[in-house]
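[09:14] KT: can someone run the structure on this one? pasting the chain below
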Amino acid sequence: MKSEFRKSLLIVVLLWQVLLLAGCDYFVSEQQAQVPFYNRDSRGRADTIGKLGTHSISIPAGVIDGWARYIGDPGDFADPKIKAKYQRPPESYDLPIESFGFLYRITDGDIYTSFRQTEEDYRRDNETLIPYGKPFPWADVIIYGEYDATAPLNFNFTVQDDFRVSKEVTNIEYIQQPQPLYGLTVYKANNGIDPETGEPWKSDTLTSDRMIHKDQAGNIKTYIDCQFTQHINSCHHMFYNDDWHIKVWISYSRTYLPQWQEMEGRVIRILDSWRVTREGKLLGKQIGKA
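[09:31] RB: done, structure tokens below
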């Protein structure tokens, strides 16, 4: 009797161990399934991953200027208590990215990456060009994911409202110029003349030149404003991309304004090089990878 009881007990224990092991394996596999595959650079640093607009991407380590913000992340000035309680969803190639920034070299389409030659190039250009008023070949780029399906991917309202506010608040009217510039339609404040003096503006604080470019449907897809009173002036350049569902903001020296279309194409080419499948497999060679 005791022998049969011991056998039955042994069988129960063995079955329990099998179930435990199976449960552990299931738990481990579930945990592993939640951890995505990360592409890494030559130093072992993991990429920043997520979904930007309509495409999953893997941004090479050392590229992002600051950090990537995901949809739902608290803002820089959010209540510290809210930040302390916030828990971001697990990282994945479907986690929507709100915005991130990087540095783009206009002269050759390369980008800044720490622990790469471009880091030294950027430092050298800062030391040898900026102090002497020479054109700085680097542009600040910020990418914004657009996720509101009802929001138009154009600057039609933005431009109209900017011109309205300028006229109503500062009594400055933006007038379209007869000749385009580098394929852009140009608007100048009061035709470029200060009404108080009858001479060209001596300040561009509220009177920067504004330029637009429309698509075939007549929608404003590019909106640029540039300073004009100094030898080296800055341009703030925004454009939408329909394929990616993103808005791009670029800041650079006006010296490089003639290359505005090339810049737009190269920024999209950079993003295309970071595209991946939902599992993280790269679709091409990453620009900027160390």
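[09:33] KT: thanks! The helical segments are 2-34, 80-85, 117-128, 156-170, 260-273.
[09:34] RB: yep, looked fine to me
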